[in-house]
Each structure stands twice: as C-alpha cells, then as structure tokens.
Amino acid sequence: xxxxxxxxLPEPHRFTPSHSEAAVxxxxxxxxxxxxATVWRQAPLLSLDSPRSMRLAREIKAxxxxxxxxxxxxxPLFLILTGSEVTPGRxxxxxxxxxxxxxxxxxxxxxxxxxx
Length: 116
Prior knowledge:
Layout: H1 4-7, H2 19-39, H3 50-62, H4 74-81, H5 90-115
C-alpha cells in the first residue's frame, strides 16, 4: 500500500552520450577556448562595475571589511582566487571563458536530454 505512489512514477531517463559524442564536444570546447585565448589578447577588460568588485576583493583579502556590502561576495572571491583583485589578469579571463564554455556544454546536454 505504501509503494503504490512509487510504482506509478515513470522510470528516470538517463542521458549518456557515446564516447565519440563526448570526444567531439570536448574537442569543440577546447578549440573554442584556444581560439578565444589567441584572438582576444587584451582580455579581460574592465567594466564600469569592476573597480567596486576589485576594491571589495582587496578588502576581503586584507580582512578589512568594515561594513556589509550590498554586492554578493561570489565575484570578489573569484577575483581573489585568480589573483585579479588589483588588476584583472589572464587567469581571470581563462577561468571565466572556461566556465562560459562549460555552461554552453551543459545547455547542449540539457537540450539533447529534452529532445530524447
């Protein structure tokens, strides 16, 4: 009697790409990453919001936060991890580009899963 609700649920569908599909995706992402890295040499660029995030990152790193920031701490921590709290460096760019490309890969996997 207690299992009747569980019995009515459909089996979960699992998406498992073939080795060749996974290899193609990895190659595309690697080529895109290398293309971004060689073509866009001046990256990362500062935006109008960058100085505030960098200042907050320096305050966090120094342990000198005197007031709670209205901003979330994720990006300033990201800046600290890449050593970009003073000047944005290539590590920030490479990590940002890899996260962007990985999210595109996740989106493609989700769309593929939805299609099947």
